[in-house]
Amino acid sequence: MKPLSFSFFKIMSLRVKPFWIELGYFTTLSFLGFLALNYFSKPRTLPSFRPQNLDVFFTSVSSTTVSSMSTIEMEVFSNVQLVFMTILMFLGGEAFTSFLRLKLIKKENKDESFSCKDYELGNVINVDDKLEDVIITNPIEDHSHHDHHDEIIKIKSIRLLSNVVFGYILVIILLGSSLVSLYIIIIPSAKQILNKKGLNLHTFSLFTTVSTFANCGFVPTNENMMIFKQNSGLLLILIPQILLGNTLFAPCLRLVIMFLWKITKRHEFEYILKNSKRIGFSHIFPCYETISIAITVVGLIVFQFVVFCSLEWNSKGTSGLSTYEKIVGSLFEVVNTRHTGQSVFDLSTFTPAILVLFASMMYLSSYTTFLPVYNYEEKSEKMKKRKGRSLMDYISLSQPSCLVIFTILICVVEKDKMKNDPLNFNVLNILFEVISAYGTVGMSIGYSCARQINPDGHCKDATYGFAGKWSNTGKFILIIVMFFGRLKKYNQRGGKAWKVL
């Protein structure tokens, strides 16, 4: 008799649409994270300060959806809470959730291929056998033999791919955290910062590495990476982790598979490379499309870097840094716009042009490509879907429409603050925060008491995000935005059925 958990997993993988599976996964993880942060561990600021339950839940959702939006300062959390947040970011990161999706794909294909015994084949084939040892006796039709054999290769390839993805994740996290620890041990200025903040070296290294690779953007310090802006070596260690975990995940994964194929000569690797669409894994693309993604990533980084240096080289945010530190800091800043959100500069000091540029970059999906990519298989599938559109195809909104709606809702909720504090609560700042949450980036312009028209004697500048000054209703709306943003891939074609004349 199969275990209950296995039966439930089978029902989930076969009966429930992927959107609802992922929504349930992130929602459950967020509530468990809230319980862990609020009831099973205590902040280190007790009894002087205790975060509100909504702020703790907001932080849990932000960690799970790897959005890194913040409403409370990071140094409030104890070492145990930081460990819990590390687990949430790891389990919610795109790399790990893609590994779970591979497990579901493998199970679905295995169940479809072996749902009934194929007596005509004369024997039962074990998918755990080596590909070269698969022998089919008493054939009936060459076509059926080919299909069955192809299914076996596919299942074995998916199983091998899941192992590669998990190994990829572990290697980068272990290597990355080791390099961060080594740097802090060697460089006195970095070590002095951790000692002053009362942060554990190993917790900081693992937390920062997982956050960076998962593209979450949280850092255990209140100032994020601004306090390390003169530690260029640390920034250079983190930049590859940002790219390997998100925008260059697909190209680097393909390179890893090509390398393993060259040294092992296993047919499964060749099958993965030549049948990327048939595998059904969203991070494996055909060769030309993969190259296009990589070129677009590099091109956008270079474009942002040139514009940023042109406009902000002598700005207030970059003052006090040497030429080398400005170059590394600027590169780190522009790489983070897609989609990590760590920052070495104060965004409130940037010109509006840079903020608009960053907002545009935050909106773009990880695998955006501006080179022409034509796929006959996808076009034929789209033509089939057009013949029988469901009601949801006609009522679903496009992603820009969703951003507009969320921004309007927050402006309505925060209308009193927009009237009394227009320099902080303006439409650009709110839109920037919404796009950052929807893009799961986490960058924020923040809130400044100096920008208040009617100065409040009790106002105190804080290092958390602009959303920290919103009402509870505004924060709750942003929580919904973070969930929408984490699952936005299911709405990429939203609004396509609409016809605007």
Automatic annotation (TrEMBL):
Task: Tell me what topology the record assigns in the membrane.
Answer: Multi-pass membrane protein
What are the GO cellular component annotations?
plasma membrane
Decide whether keyword Coiled coil is in the record: no
The UniProt record lists the keyword Transport = yes
**Annotated compartments:** Membrane
Q: Which residues cross the membrane?
A: 20-40, 80-100, 164-187, 233-261, 291-311, 353-374, 425-447, 467-487
Q: Which GO terms describe its molecular function?
A: sodium ion transmembrane transporter activity
Assigned keywords, A-Z: Ion transport, Membrane, Transmembrane, Transmembrane helix, Transport
Q: Which residues form the signal peptide?
A: none
Q: Which family does it belong to?
A: Belongs to the TrkH potassium transport family. HKT (TC 2.A.38.3) subfamily.
Q: What is this protein called?
A: Sodium transporter hkt1
Organism of origin is: Solanum tuberosum
Its ancestry begins with: Eukaryota, Viridiplantae, Streptophyta, Embryophyta, Tracheophyta
